Protein 1
Amino acid sequence: MKSITFGKRLTEVRKNKKMSQDEVGKLVGVHGAVIGRYEREEVKPSIEMATQLAEVLEVSLDYLVGSTDILLEKNIVSKIIDIQKLKESDRQHVFALLDAFLKQTKLQSIM
């Protein structure tokens, strides 16, 4: 895992979403200058604020704080949660289909 800081991750994700600091700030209820201070790492957000930022930017809190380098999109996480709610037998069918598709895709990339 890379050692990328919260501020750098916040900046990266915000810019990838093509959002200004002011836009993000309005969505979480703070002035855009506060977002800038987080990005420059002059201050650290509370856990509540970091959670709100992750939700607004549609990334996992784990990614934003650097616990993982895998950027999970919100719609993918939502689908995983939906799968987890299925009956065990239905879950096994979904995983079997997914496994078959992933294997086929990997084989095609090798050829």
Protein 2
Amino acid sequence: MEDSSSTPHEPRIVDDLSAFKLAFRRLAAGVSVVTARDPDGRPVGFTATSLASLAAVPPLATFNMARVSSAWRAIEQTDHVIIHILGARNAGVAAHMAADHDRRFDGDHWSPGPLGLPLLDDVPAWMLGRIVGRYPVHDNAVIVAQIEDGGLGAPDEALLYHERTFLRPGDPA
């Protein structure tokens, strides 16, 4: 059955996975990086577009991740993470932290921060979070962290991820 609402320029949604992927590519999301140390003390981290505030009292944040991720072992076994809010000037770091997991901490874009956790340089904001919940859902997990500390860097325009590209916001709607 042909979908009369689609045009020749739009992808046709043919199944649940396509519907999910195509729709969420059109949802702009803020970009963050979550860092931790694995049980052997090595820094780990990943770029996330799922960061959300859960509550102000107590201050809780959530992020999602795949349990097959290279960082899962660390997140599963650690008590603390640093959540970095990225700005437009951090687009290169966002891409770097989403690339080859063995090379994410090559370079001088980070230093040891609170509790020895990897702290990215020159980010608009960061928060130290104590993990208070890990909720597996299929091959993924929702992680809840209670914020215990944080800091602000220089202000910046937002960094968004939309249609598989890092962007800065355009004109107001």
Protein 3
Amino acid sequence: MTPTDQTPENHVPQHWLEGILDILKEAVEGGAPGQGTAFVDGTAAGGDSNHGLLATLDSLSAAQASRDVHGTSIVGHARHTAFHLEVMVRWEQAGDRGPFDWKGSFLPAQVDDAGWDEVRVRVRAAYDALMAFARTQQDRPDGDLTGGLTGTVAHVAYHLGAIRQLVKAVS
């Protein structure tokens, strides 16, 4: 159902968790082909022009992703983003409060082709694990997960933006 289809007679309220996960999905997977988006560039009806994190990473070679741009690289941002998603699940599911090596999570910042494939698989796996875990929390009576998930959305969106700016320098 699109927002224009929602009249008072047929409006079904969205669960808070689904609303947050929809925005996280847009940041990571991009927009639905031919549909409007909340904040990333729209994805064309044919599925091209997808500017979510996964499609952005998939559009780059290992050499491009490894290129140093003012002391950082796309590989570093991708590794760090995967690490953050993994920590979010550990934090919420297992109560693991660290310590976490946030600085080290950006390293190594350069990879070969096989290493780049591994980084992209790790990002996807970390995202899938977080989504699967979060969906088990819909009946949770409190909103403790709200802060963690909204922080994750902001964090992923920040790194998506940083990566998209770095793409301009390496393309």
